[in-house]
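At this stage, I wrote out one protein, both as residues and as discrete backbone shape codes, and that material follows here.
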Amino acid sequence: MRLRRLLRPGLFGRLRAQMMLLLIGGLLTVDVLAYLGLRLIQADEVEQTLTHAAARVAALPAGLPPVDTRLLSALTFTDLHVALIGGDGEVLADSGPISATDRPSPDGLRTVVPSRPDEAVTVTAPGGTDYRMIMVPAPPGTLVTRRDGGAAKAVDRVAIGYPLTAHQRTGRRLVVLELSYALLVLGAWTVLSSSFIRAGLRPLREISRSAEAIADGSRTERIAAGADDPELRHLVEALNHAFDARRRDEDRMRDFVADASHELRTPLAAVRGWTDLYRQGALRSRPDVVTAIDTIWQEANRMEQLVEDMLTLARLDAEITAPAAAVPVASLLAETTATARLLHQDHTYALRPGPPGLTVQGDPAALRRALSNLLVNAGRHTPAGCTVTVSAEHAGTHVEIRVEDDGPGLSAAQREVAFDRFWRDDRSRGRPGGTGLGLPISRSIARAAGGDLRLAESSTGGLAAVLVLPPAGA
């Protein structure tokens, strides 16, 4: 388990690792740039020193008396290595380090190309000392004094070398210092970053504790966030919004179950009451038995319709719908209106199918049910002799199907709650057949198709139900 936690660190470990990687990258960049900058400065210093020394050698007059390397070193710079070379390439004399292994070898000096006296090259002595060397012509007639007292020999060119030992030592020291300081900075940053990250993640831990309390059933718990952290505040607002939505869903589900239980209790009580009367022998005559059977049958149909409507709403809430297709509006209105006329023959149904070729997108069976619910509601909840007008038209980017009646209608407050499940107007509670789920089902079907259902007052003072649907191909 511990190995798994190490291989899969949490947010704290990832943040610390990412910050550490950024810091390491920054330190490496700074260290490399500092080292390269030092090398450039040292190289420029070496080149300037060699150029200055070569200029001083070139400025010597011709025909000088015999010189030795000590005099020539004094004329250039005492810390430089000077080699006097004859015409045959022989090293006549040199100056610089006392140890022979620290002096450039004759073979190394031959790598300094005389034809390019202005270009310095690096020569390594047998002892490992590196020199930056430049070759310049000797003044005409320059002779070198022999140490054995023999005849002076002519000098053809002068090799001037700058020992790089001090510069290389400085570079190594810089690398060691950079690594040491980097380790110190990394160690200090590890401690400080852990404290900073823990402090930054403390609100998340508080959010987690509040979320766990809400998950355990607390309905009053809410997450508080500091106003100085906009990102965290947005997260907290989103979580609180989600928790509020969950609570509203739970409340709706609780109300739905309570209302469904209440709606089912009435027909069940009727069925049980009549069956108890029959078992007790209270129904002695045939008409009483027929009345009991008819009532039981009606209440069973009511329960069946109620259960079917609840299942339909459950499927719509779960977004379980059939594939959408193009539905001709004219045939949709004609079929549903014909059925409504048959069910409510004491009403007048006026049909205005709208422009020819008008089609909407949706599940044909579901759309027929949604419109049938509106037509049946208009016939059921209005007095006999009322007129129900069904029309369709283009309205911007959608198609509107309107079902209007000239009945008593609903007030604005009633229209606000008319889509609540199991809601019924007080005037319609005594009428048989209604479950209070027709409007919620119709609106859910419309929204599943990409539209909506809204209620308004009709031009005659009654109720207007407007079914908004997307056109086919939208």
Notes: The first strand starts at residue 81 and ends at 85. Residues 5 and 410 are 63 Å apart (CA to CA). The chain has four domains: 1-59+165-217, 61-163, 230-315, 321-469.
